[in-house]
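Following up on my earlier thread - several people asked me to post the actual chain instead of describing it. Fair enough. Here it is, all 204 residues.
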Amino acid sequence: MATNYYDITLALAGVCQSAKLVQQFALEGKADEEAFNTSLYTLLQTTPKDILSVYGGHERNLKLGLETLLEQLNGSTEDITRYWLSLLALSGKLEKNAQAKSELARRIQYLPTQLEHYDLLNEQMLANLASIYVDTISPLGNKIQVKGSIEVLQQTSMHHRIRACLLAGIRSALLWRQVGGSKWQLLFSRRKIFNMAKQIYSSL
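Reply from S.P.:
Thanks for posting it. Predicted structure:
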């Protein structure tokens, strides 16, 4: 079966977008709100008709992720590299853990009900998303050490935002696996992914 680099690149941009948001929140205490909204929105898409519908139906919703992916494939090595590679690794552990996977699916299933009471960016909603990450993803492996401003990282509300972003990153990482993404492509097909990301980005 032919490798679908379009789908793989979009999902990878989704992972990178979450990683970039984590970095923005940790360093500055704020992040690109549209990108944040898109990333959280992916958690509600449990039966999408295609990959683009996971990200709100428009490639431009992944602008930040595509920019980040292009920088990363160009050889940028900052904390963000560790974040997105850790998310890919954790999604692999999640795939192998049936109990954690079913618990995650069960918790995600309740999100639409909670949205009847809270907006997606409401503090209570962000706290709920953070607790899903802590309960289902954190126990799977090495915790992702987030670096940033001490002042920012002491705030509970920032913990919630960062963990909500990490949960969204896991969503995109699982999607990346589902559409045929693999670590071998990151080693041997970087140029193909880079070219596809560049092509999508230049059409925005």
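The mean pLDDT is 95. That should answer part of your original question.
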